[in-house]
Design brief:
The protein is α+β, with helices and mostly antiparallel strands. It contains two helices and two strands. Strands 1-2 form a two-stranded antiparallel sheet.
Length: 67
């Protein structure tokens, strides 16, 4: 039970940090391109290469979704 609570708290903190990062990225983008509004979406792709499967290596791609 305690472990589940810890995991939930950690996930919540990770989400909060991710939201803050997204806000910072958006501010940076808006400063470079005035009039733009949107948010970043992180897409994680797990590599299917059998050699890399053991390490669980993932590739993240960031893209902007416009409002």
């Amino acid at each position: 039970m305690l472990l589940a609570l810890r995991a939930a708290r950690r996930n919540h903190l990770n989400r909060a940090a991710m939201t803050q990062k997204n806000d910072e990225r958006m501010q940076h983008l808006e400063s470079r391109l005035p009039g733009i509004s949107g948010f970043f979406v992180r897409q994680t792709f797990w590599t299917t290469d059998r050699i890399r499967k053991k390490t669980g290596e993932s590739v993240s791609i960031w893209q902007v979704v416009f409002k």
